[in-house]
Amino acid sequence: MPCTDSWQARFAELLEAGTAPSTHRAHRRDLDYFRTWHLYRFDEELNYPVLLDSIMTFLTDHLGGMPGRVERRLLEGGWRKKGGRLAIPTLRRYLSSLSYAHDSRGVDNPCRHPQVKLLLKKARVAQGSHGRGQSAAITLEILEAMLAVCDDDLRGVRDRALFLTGFSAGGRRRSELSGLDVRDL
Q1: Spatial separation of the C-alpha atoms in residues 64 and 120, rounded to whole Å
Q2: The pTM is what?
Q3: Cβ distance 113 to 52 under 8 Å?
Q4: Could you tell me if 160 and 150 are in contact, meaning their C-beta atoms sit under 8 angstroms apart?
Q5: pLDDT band at 1, cuts 50/70/90?
Q6: Residues 6 or more apart from 167 whose CB is under 8 A from it?
Q7: Is the torsion defined by CA of 58, 91, 50, 82 positive or negative?
Q8: Exposure b/e, 28-53, CB count within 10 A at least 16 = b
Q9: DSSP characters for 30-67?
Q10: Cβ(119)–Cβ(56) below 8 Å
C-alpha cells in the first residue's frame, strides 16, 4: 500500500535545510544564466532533463564559439560582463549547479555523460590551463614589503599579526588564517 504522505515534500525540505544559503544563491544564479543562454541560443524554454546536445553546445559556445547574436544579448542583458570564452573552472561550476538541479529533480543527469567530461578535459589541455598549481611561498623581502604598508591603526596591527603568524607558521592558507581565534595562539 503506498504512503499517503508525500516524501517529495520532505525531500525538498531536507535539501533546503541541508544546503547553505550562499550555495542556494549560487545555484540559482548559475541556473538563471543557463536558462537565459538556452532561451537566447535555441529560442525555447529550458526543460529537464536538459538534452546532452544543449550542454555540449553550452560548453563549446563558452569555450570560444558562441554566435555573436547570443553573446550580444547576454552582454546587453547584464548576464556577462565581457565577451569571449569562460575559464574551465567557471564552466565546471555551471555544470555543477546544473547537475544538482537534475539530481534534486530525480531525472537523468546528462552532466555526467562521458562526452561532457572528455570535452572539459581536452579543452583544459588545449587552453594550457592544467590548474594554477601551488602558489610560491612569500620571501622575507615580500613579507617586509607587506608589513611596510600596514598602518598603525587597529586594522593594520591585525594585518601585521596575521602576516607574521602565517609566515612564521610555515605559510598557512588564507582560510586557515582567517579562521584563527586568540585562543588558537
Answers
A1: 13
A2: 0.64
A3: yes
A4: yes
A5: low
A6: 138, 143
A7: negative
A8: eebbebbebbbebbeeeebeebbeee
A9: HHHHHHHHHHHHHSS---SSPPHHHHHHHHHIIIII--
A10: yes
- Tens digit of pLDDT for each residue in 62-102? 998 899 999 999 999 999 999 899 999 999 999 999 998 99
* Extended strands (E) in the chain: none
Matching residue, cell 538541479: 101
169 CB-contact burial (10 Å; exposed 0-12 / middle 13-18 / buried 19+) = exposed
Residue with cell 582560510: 175
Which residue bears the cell 547537475?
Answer: 99
Supply 104's cell numbers.
534534486
Cell of 73: 544579448
Task: Determine the angle formed by the axes of helices 21-42 and 88-105, rounding to 10 degrees.
Answer: 100
